[in-house]
Amino acid sequence: MNTWGKLGSGVGAATLVFGIYLAAEARPAGETNNASVDAVFADYSKPGAPGCALAVYRDGKIVYAKGYGQANIEENVAITPQSVFDIGSTSKQFTAASILLLEKQGKLSVNDDVRKYIPELPDYGQKITILHLLNHTSGLRDYLALIELAGINVDSVTTDEDALQLVVRQKALNFAPGSDFLYSNTGFFLLSTIVKRVSGKTLREFATENIFQPLGMTHTQYRDDHTLLIPKRALAYDPKEHGDAFALNVSYFEQTGDGAVHTSVEDLLKWDENFYSGQVGGKDFLAEIQEHGKLNSGKVLEYAKGLFIQDYRGLPTVSHGGAWGGYRAELLRFPEQHFSVACLCNRSDANPTKKAHGVADIYLAKLLKPAEKQASATDSNGPGVALTEAQLKPLAGNYRDPNKGTLIRISAKEQKLMAEVFGQRAELRAMSATEFVPGSLPVDLRFIFEPATNGTTKRLRITGLAELAAVYDALPDYAPNSAELAAYAGDYASDELGVSFRLGMVGEKLKLVAMLDPSGLERSGGIPRNELKPVLVDEFEIGGTPVTIHFTRDKARGIAGFTLDAGRTKGMIFARHAPAGQ
User: Fold this and answer.
1) CA angle, corner 438, sides to 437 and 440, nearest 5?
2) Distance of alpha carbon 12 from alpha carbon 123, whole angstroms
3) Closest to 231 in 3D by CA, of 80, 332, 361
4) Among 262, 263, 301, 561, which lies 20 to 30 A Cα-Cα from 210?
5) CA 518, CA 499: separation in Å to the nearest integer?
6) Residue 383, pLDDT score
7) pLDDT at 455
8) Residue 194: its pLDDT value, please?
9) What angle (nearest 5°) sits at the alpha carbon of residue 464, between those of residues 458 and 466?
10) What is d(CA 428, CA 434) in angstroms, rounded to the nearest whole number?
11) With contact defined as beta carbons under 8 Å apart, do 367 and 337 qualify?
């Protein structure tokens, strides 16, 4: 399992449609033809492959539901609307709801200092509130990244205590609380700890008693025990690189809060309908859980409390996706239309968010604004052009967003242009001599190259996906020789992670060759032992990961250590020990 978030999921999905199911409620006259909905999932057409469960809700009823693919490949069990899936981060709304119900019971306030309930959390000199955790504005480093950076095997069993001990060792924040938004699983994991310490019950017990049972969600629970048996559970899979084979990918993590809810599309209807009835929590609760977060500056966020509050083609939506192991999930609600789509999948290349929007496009066609037209990877019939090697090579190089620091690597080889970001690679398809789209990723992205003029550096403009949309400046070329690279070899230790990185020369390349525990034993998990790719002087990326290393030097210009950034975890300090082999 890889905890690094992938840039777009749902590449090349193809499965067989199994387990057809139509809900008892009759489809109203004039309702959308079911065949149009099925066409959205037509790429799941091969036998022996996993897929998705779909349910469409309207006015509190299921108007269409169906299973596509297999819940268990080994046993040839079909997915149905009763199949139970791990919904990953879609779970966060249930964690937020549990906190708000405790507030309603007078047992806490969202404005309380987190250290009131978790005193072992370091005092960072600034108050972190429960509300900061709910809105992803705490600045706390993401514990899932910390687990990998510490060399822990993410396929092993981990517990609340494992995660908490790693979190409380952190000596710094990504940013001052409330000054920025950065999605952090740590915040929601800590919320589960607060629920337990305030209520005296685990999050699993509290949510069952206060949410799932009152709503009749009899097939929904937080899975906090890796040995727990769950009836009708769909297993999850990764597609292998070649052929139509799959590998099992289910999690053995036992900590909850940021994820771990297991449920079905049928059960989710009952939760979805609570946003209209207020059966659990009441109207004030509904208003609070959907209230936009705000930064200290007053900037209003799209994130509420475990929910994204956005617009889709002119209509307000409330939604949250999820991805963990081989599971992918999306619950998408159009509150003004009393209409929702739930899509739960058990293959890591699925894109349930795109599927849910595709279903909404059919049912709400007369209400939605026309989709913006632009060349993208989703336009399978886009024109495209053929470019020569001479046209592509000037576009190659490293480009950086000066605001976020995001690095995009562009390479040209064999008349192909490749983009690498966050450790993920995709081939770019030319729509013109300067405009490209990722040909294999189901995301709306456009890469527009702007050549240098009048002494300026060349730039790359990316539009579409909000996480990457920006103007990137080209960085100067940097190609150190092997002697220069060898100067960086050595052991570097982090007290916050309890791990050392051993860097060494393998042939002409500088590589991460080992991750060591405090006793010097090699750890089996963690980030890939890949080449350190040069970016600038004293700055490298670890290939295939979103990890960037910035080496620091002492007064004598010797290498003293490095700081490490990895997506949602920034500023980790590593001190240099004796060079490897000495």
Assistant:
1) 140
2) 47
3) 80
4) 301
5) 6
6) 59
7) 65
8) 98
9) 95
10) 11
11) yes
Point out the residues of the chain with pLDDT beneath 70: 1-32, 243, 372-383, 440-443, 454-456, 578-582
Length of the chain: 582
Give the pLDDT score at 130: 98
**pLDDT in the model for residue 3:** 52
User: Alpha helix (H) ranges present in 159-210?
Assistant: 160-168, 185-199, 203-207
How far is the C-alpha of 366 from the C-alpha of 313, rounded, in Å? 11
Encoded tokens for 117: 């309930």
What's the confidence (pLDDT) of residue 382? 57
Instruction: Tell me what pLDDT residue 44 has.
Output: 81
Can you tell me the distance from the alpha carbon of 445 to that of 228, in angstroms, rounded to the nearest whole number? Answer: 41
Going by C-alpha positions, the residue among 96, 100, 142 that lies closest to residue 305 is 96
- Tell me the two tokens of residue 182: 């950065």
How wide is the angle at C-alpha 25 spanned by C-alphas 23 and 31, nearest 5°? 95
CA distance 396 to 480: 18
Q: How far from chain centre, in Å, is Cα 495?
A: 27
Q: Comparing C-alpha atoms, which of 266, 136, 125, 110 is closest to residue 195? A: 110
423, 145 contact by CB (below 8 A): no
Give the phi and the psi of residue 510 in degrees, each rounded to 5: -90, 130
| Residue 11 contacts residue 441 (beta carbons within 8 Å) | yes
Q: Closest Cα to residue 210, out of 109, 332, 105?
A: 105
Considering only CA atoms, which of 581, 534, 579 is closest in space to residue 558? Answer: 579
- Residues pairing with 72 in the sheet: 77
Domains parsed from the chain with CATH numbers: 86-139+174-363 (3.40.710.10), 389-474 (2.40.128.50), 482-576 (2.40.128.50)
Give the pair of three-digit tokens for residue 264.
Answer: 């079905």
CA–CA separation, 223 vs 218, rounded Å?
14
Instruction: Spell out the residues 6+ positions from residue 315 whose beta carbon is closer than 8 angstroms to its own.
Output: 334, 336, 337, 364, 367, 368
* Chain segment 485-521, per-residue pLDDT in tens: 999 999 999 999 999 999 999 999 999 999 999 999 9
Inter-CA distances, 273 with 8, 37, 42, 215, 338, Å? 29, 22, 29, 9, 9
Is residue 224 within 8 A of residue 206, CB to CB? The reply is: no
CA atoms of 233 and 262, how far apart (whole Å): 8
d(CA 309, CA 14): 31
Output the pLDDT for position 5: 39
Would you call 387 helix, strand, or coil by DSSP? coil
Token representation of residue 395 = 């576009």
Q: Are 158 and 151 in contact (CB under 8 A)?
A: no
